[in-house]
Design brief:
16 strands, alpha/beta, Glucose Oxidase, domain 1, TIM Barrel, Enzyme I, Chain A, domain 2, eight-stranded mixed beta sheet, 587 residues
């Protein structure tokens, strides 16, 4: 007899497969008494375990970076920041000294204490942080015990992952070839596990009460991610209906995937450059070079984050040169070091700040610490010989900052020339527009730069004064806000008038609902996570420029962001229908 369980929708889609129970916890934590003479050795064990766990998180982040949006990969940045939080480490050291027991016990007790504190908070976002502590603690304990966690597989068969919860580190243990869905007894819509499931395109339901007790291991189930329903032992008729729906979805996704090989051009012949956001050379292994126009955002900081000290100039030259050689005749845009906030370096301590997003980060650090900034600029210039490269400055706030960086570039270029070093004299300098203040003085910035790129994620939150990671105000975070749309239009118009290339490298670049509006404003370069490129290309190929301009003007007339969002969604569906119709006719 069919059993229907309801939970909270976390990621849309339909999955049909056997449900497999998994348990991700460590079943046994050793406990033994130690003497005062052993404390130093136990502290060293903890430091080594933290380093091992840090490498594991960084490796997982790289593995998933081509499948996740820039914002979602920050989940792992947050874990790295937590892992190296000195207060947390000091608490573990103190617990170790008080208990006089091995460090595994100290880690378990401190993590458990933090979990309880956060789980008792009213704020939903703060409650979800308890899971981050749990996950980080689990990884440190695994490293201490030299115990490899089991991979979540089901004998090479398709399966639906069922567990108490799905944590960020679990994303590296699932069999992505055979997993069809995720269902958990705990978690919320805004939990990091749910966010990752959405990014990875895995249908998911969370907060299903009595899940593991009600549905036996190996039972065939239907997971309806959109309606948050899990159906155990479905009737044949219902199973047939869901199988047809799932087949239609798979066919649609296949057709969209095929679009990636077609030209990125509107029906009336306007070219729109679709570029990729990457976090390092290893990301390039997962990108089909033929489907992109170049690298619109190379986040250099991640090569710094995975090291124990600042990479030397020669190490940086080799890294940047590999990217330029991979790109061939296509442009590579290197963003200079953007650390601070939620992207820490273990070997470069930044001060604790009440609001790090508005604090000492990005270009502000580079200007205050010119040694590593000069080294990075020299390395990019040297690597540029025989290729195409651009240098982009993050978190720019003032015109004087741009002037200062232009002078630095000129000085280093002259020094390389005098020393006989090869470099491309065509390397361009540009800025990221993230801080609203720089958008308001754009007329003063344009003469100083060769190109611009808009980081819409930070721009939206700064412009609207909204932290999108806070569920209490997350509904106010929207790029469809009329103020944001007018800002985008103004930037595009000024750049077109000044004949300066301008791109979008924030999340809306990969949002196919937004594509016709951006084209209508005048943007001709969009840079995104490669996973979003096929749908964006579909929109580019669907609507001629005149229609895009009409969409953009209609969006500007709306006062309510929700009206604009619905309009954009409707246009995307119309484009989808055109595409599907054309494919059927072609078939």
């Amino acid at each position: 007899m069919a059993i229907k369980l309801r939970g909270v929708a976390a990621a849309p889609g339909i999955a049909i497969a056997p449900l497999v129970h998994f348990h991700g916890g460590l079943e046994f934590i050793p406990a033994r008494q130690i003497g005062s003479e052993d404390v130093a050795a136990e502290k060293q064990r903890l430091s080594s375990a933290i380093a091992t766990a840090s490498k594991s998180i960084q490796r997982l982040r790289h593995e998933l970076s081509s499948s996740l949006s820039a914002h979602d990969t920050k989940i792992y940045d947050a874990q790295l920041a937590l892992l190296h939080d000195q207060t947390l480490i000091d608490d573990m050291f103190k617990q170790l000294e008080e208990d006089e027991k091995n460090v595994e016990v100290a880690v378990q007790r401190v993590i458990s204490r933090y979990e309880k504190v956060f789980e008792g908070m009213e704020d939903v976002a703060m409650r979800e942080k308890a899971a981050d502590f749990r996950d980080v603690g689990r990884q440190v304990l695994s490293a201490l015990m030299a115990k490899e966690r089991s991979v979540y597989i089901s004998g090479g068969q398709d399966y639906i992952f069922a567990a108490d919860e799905f944590l960020p580190s679990d994303a590296g243990l699932i069999d992505r070839e055979h997993i069809r869905g995720i269902v958990t007894a705990r978690g919320g819509k805004y939990s990091h596990g749910a966010i990752l499931a959405r990014s990875l395109g895995i249908p998911s339901i969370v907060a299903v009460e009595d899940l593991l007790q009600t549905v036996q291991n190996g039972t065939r189930v239907i997971l309806d991610g959109e309606n948050a329903v899990l159906i155990s032992d479905p009737e044949e008729e219902e199973l047939g209906q869901y199988e047809r729906r799932a087949q239609e979805q798979d066919e649609a996704e296949r057709r969209v995937f095929e679009v990636r090989f077609l030209s990125s051009m509107t029906p009336d012949g306007t070219s729109v450059q679709l570029m990729a956001n990457v976090e390092g050379v290893r990301d390039l292994e997962h990108i089909e070079s033929k489907v992109i126009s170049g690298i619109g955002l190379f986040r250099t900081e991640f090569a710094f984050m995975e090291r124990k000290q600042f990479p030397s100039e020669e190490e940086q030259v080799q890294m940047y040169r590999k990217a330029i050689q991979w790109a061939g005749d296509k442009m590579v845009t290197f963003r200079t070091l953007d650390i601070g906030g939620d992207k820490p370096l273990t070997y470069f301590r930044t001060p604790s700040e009440r609001n790090p997003v508005l604090g000492w980060r990005g270009l502000r650090i580079s200007i205050d610490w010119p040694d590593f900034f000069y080294t990075q600029i020299r390395a990019i210039l040297r690597a540029s010989a025989g290729g195409r490269a651009r240098i982009m400055l993050p978190m720019v706030t003032s015109v004087t900052e741009v002037q200062h960086c232009r002078q630095i570039l000129n000085v280093i270029s002259k020094d390389l020339e005098e020393s006989g070093e090869e470099y491309s004299k065509d390397v361009q300098l540009g800025v990221m527009i993230e801080v609203p203040a720089i958008a308001l003085v754009l007329d003063k910035v344009l003469p100083l730069v060769d190109f611009l790129s808009i980081g819409t994620n930070d721009m939206v939150q700064y412009l609207l004064a909204v932290d999108r990671d806070n569920p209490r105000v997350a509904n106010l975070y929207t790029p469809y806000h009329p103020a944001m749309l007018r800002t985008l239009q103004s930037i595009a118009e000024q750049c077109v008038a000044a004949d300066k290339p301008v791109s979008i490298c924030g999340e809306i670049a990969g949002d196919h609902h937004f594509t016709p509006i951006l084209i209508g404003f005048g943007f001709r370069e969009l840079s995104m996570s490669p996973v979003f490129l096929p749908r964006v290309k579909l929109m580019v190929r669907t609507y001629p420029i005149e229609e895009c301009q009409d969409f953009a003007q209609e969006a500007l007339r709306h006062v309510d962001p929700e009206e604009t969002r619905k309009m954009a969604s409707m246009k995307a569906k119309e484009g989808w229908s055109r595409f599907m119709g054309d494919n059927r006719q072609d078939g």
